[in-house]
Fold:
Amino acid sequence: MPPLVFFKECEYCRKSFKAKPKNKKFCNTNCKDANKSKKNRDTKIKFVLNYKKDKKCFKCGWNDFFPVLEFHHDKEKEISFLVYSPTNNLDLIKKEIKKCVLLCPNCHKILHFKERKINEVYENLK
Structure:
């Protein structure tokens, strides 16, 4: 008697596949690895959002929509990487966040604008 063949839906790509062992969840290793990466990325995103949740802009105090607050590296501290870099593990992200302040998008853009030479052109237009 031939072994029973089960058809399942891949948890990542949602394609139907033959699953000889009933507990198989993915149609191939690519989907399995991609799902693991997605869970890892989701964990990092949740951590960052939870970190921002009760915070406000360091400069103006704005906190109407915390997910858009941006990390700004202090000039005095060495930048290892950007906080949202997907390749970094959670421990490195936590370490890097300690070197930053949160700014609203407007204050962050104004701060960087003033740091650049463009500000000199702007001042001359007044």
Observations:
- The mean pLDDT is 83.
- Residues 69 and 104 are 5 Å apart (CA to CA).
- The helical segments are 29-52, 90-97, 105-115, 118-125.
